[in-house]
Amino acid sequence: MKLVTVILGLIILLSVPLSAGAITLINNDVILEAQEYGVKRSKMPLSDFLQPWLAYEEQAAIINETTERAYLYTPFLLLAYDARDKAISKQSIELANSEQILADYAGCLVFSIIVNGNTEKFSDNVQVIIKQEKKIIKPYHAVINPPVKNPWASNEPHYTAHYYFYFYEQDVVLSKPITLTVTTKDKQERRFYFELPNFK
């Protein structure tokens, strides 16, 4: 995926609230750690930068840039990404900015999901849920971008869709794993496993 698309997606992501205590308890020390993490890795390709917050589709036959995947945007990642972005553009990184990001994103978990299909309409009416033990949790908000024709050399799949889904944090037990399940119009189900306590 082109860097511009990813950046635009993150701009959209930063327009909807996320939690100040989703995975790692956030305090001033953690804010500074996240800022340092982002600055030190500002020259790293974005795909590598996001790797610690990544889950590949459970049945993926091969792992490469075309593999379907999902990212969990924790508060730490949001702060680190903001610091990375500011370091790249040579802006100052202020504690107040990070505190504002946390305030803006209080109370929810956000997932970025990238899936592939063979038709331009494959992702119409996409359904996304979290399964945690016997509980099924539905999102309260979604940003669904239209599929784009992919540039891969192979003939299939032809299209890639990128979504953001937002869940209330209070509905999820953060000390237990979840499976993020995505079902597209073609009735294909994708599953992404997140061991929540392992995410910073």
Detailed description of the structure:
This protein has five helices and ten strands. The chain has 200 residues and is an alpha+beta fold. The protein has one domain. The strands form two sheets. Strands 1, 2, 3, 6, 7 and 8 form a six-stranded antiparallel sheet that branches. It has a four-stranded antiparallel sheet with strand order 5-4-9-10, with no helix packed on it. Strand 4 and strand 5 form a beta hairpin. The two termini are 25 Å apart. The N terminus is likely disordered.
SS content category: alpha+beta
What's the structural domain tally?
A: 1
Major sheet summary line = 6 strands, antiparallel
Percent helix range: 25-40%
Helices and strands, in N-to-C order?
HHHEEHHEEEEEEEE
| Low-confidence runs of at least 5 consecutive residues | 1-22
The pLDDT mean sits at: 85
Q: Main attributes?
A:
single chain, 200 residues, alpha+beta, four-stranded antiparallel β-sheet, 5 helices
